[in-house]
Amino acid sequence: MTGALVLAIFLPSTISDNRGLLDPPAGKHGFLTVKGEGFAFEDGKPARFVGVTIAKDSIFVDKETIEKVADLLARLGVNLVRFHHLDDT
User: Fold this and answer.
1) Residue 56's closest CA among 23, 33, 88?
2) 12 cis-preceded (ω within 30 degrees of 0)
3) pLDDT (tens digit, 0 to 9) for every residue of the chain, 89 residues total?
4) Which of 47, 53, 58, 66 has its CA 20 to 30 A from that of 84?
């Protein structure tokens, strides 16, 4: 599946907008720590991660595409991105 196709599936008019799950700015709750069997921030707020992997040719794209992908990831509530195969290129 190409990046353009993925972006077309999630148009701005879609009903799903999970930006409310994000709690910007990053770092406002302090450092991440281990708490019991999970993670929490220094201020006690539990940490919840929603992540994706971006790999291979999808890493090296133009600025316009980067902005569209960042907006899409925010609408999906993504707060963690793993760049895979970065060393292989």
Assistant:
1) 88
2) no
3) 445 445 555 556 566 778 888 888 888 999 999 999 999 999 999 998 999 988 877 778 889 888 888 888 888 889 999 988 776 55
4) 47
Question: Which tokens hold the place of 40?
Answer: 């929490």
Cβ–Cβ under 8 Å, residues 60 and 52: no
Q: What is the pTM of this model?
A: 0.69
Assign 3-class secondary structure to the chain.
Answer: CCHHHHHHHCCCCCCCCCHHHCCCCCCCCCCEEEECCEEEECCCCECCCCEEEEEHHHCCCCHHHHHHHHHHHHHCCCCEEEEECHHHC
**Could you give the CA distance from residue 30 to residue 44 in angstroms, rounded to a whole number?**
9
